[in-house]
Amino acid sequence: MVGALKYNLSKIMFKKTPKLGYVLVILIFIGSVAILYQIQLIKIQDKLEQIEETQNHYALTVTTEKPLLEEKDLILLYNRVPKTGSTSFVGVAYDLCKKNKFHVLHVNITANSHTVTLENQLKFVQNVTNWKSMKPALYHGHFAFFDFSKYGAPKPLFINLIRKPLDRFISYYYFLRYGDNYRPYLVRKKAGNTMTFDECVLKQLPDCDPNNMWLQIPFFCGHSANCWKPGNKWALTEAKKNLVNNYFLVGVTEELEDFVQILEKSLPRFFKGATEYFQHSNKAHLRQTVQKELPKETTMDKIKSSTVWQMENEFYEFALDQFHFVKKVIARNKGQNVMYEKIRPKS
């Protein structure tokens, strides 16, 4: 009986052992196929990601070549400093606006005031923001900077030009006496006064008081009381901060053509064709003071010894360094593209 049982067990085991071997072989085969499939799947996914990234590059390149929808709402604000070449620059904008389909509006303030009341600041912000039929637009006028975000409105793109402070001061002194070639028949308020700038400084008269140079800093500083106190250090610091943080571009009169070129490259919606037009028209030298005498070295030394000149000149040098930095970045990165990659989640 026992012997028969052993025989049956060994018979059963002998029959099942080959089946287990077959199962193991099949499992190994299936596992190998699964691993190979996984490897191929990973390769395919990598390839798809490469293709997707290439498509992303292409899509972005195409997109950047077409005008963005937001361009129709662009607003430039040029709070132009007197006697810095602003008329020459604005003349280019007026001549291009029809061709490039934007509007140019002059902001005229009563009595040529450079400061704007709170009420009119608010109204101006509302007009500029909501006047859709005038967009895109370039607004320009002789007024100090003020922050649109203070009134809950989006900021426009501020631009400006500044000039060597003593050159601007002397030019303005003679402009008030002799006018310019832009409107030669217009009688200026100091017409008939033939006193030279040297004589004025020698006699220490108000017209050539260095405090009258305190203008470019206030235009960038804004509407705070300290902005308009000649020689105020806080005003200088604030003007520098605004120039860097709130202005799209600030150029210098001495490099006006470079200013136009950068604007054409950066804002073609407004300034497409501006450089060529500027070079081949009379806009580059549109407005020049009719009569102007260079001051003596002693006169210049006396003006340069004043705190106001030193601070205005420091601000000019600061703006010049920033402008040159912008030019270097453009020159160093010609053909630069900015692209989005590895966008997740995938659609």
Task: Note down, in words, how this protein is organized.
By secondary structure, this protein is of the alpha/beta class. It has two domains: 1-62; 74-332, 3-Layer(aba) Sandwich (Rossmann fold), CATH 3.40.50.300. It has helices at 2-65, 86-100, 118-130, 165-178, 197-203, 216-221, 233-246, 256-266, 268-271, 274-280, 297-304, 307-332; strands at residues 75-78, 103-106, 137-140, 157-162, 247-252. A five-stranded parallel beta sheet has the order 2-3-1-4-5, with helices on both faces. α3 (118-130) links the parallel β2 and β3. α7 runs parallel beside α12 (307-332) and α8 (256-266) runs antiparallel to α10. The longest helix is centred in the N-terminal third of the chain and has 64 residues, at 2-65. The protein is elongated, with a radius of gyration of 36 Å. The N and C termini lie far apart (73 Å). The model is unreliable at 9-16 and 54-64 (pLDDT under 50).
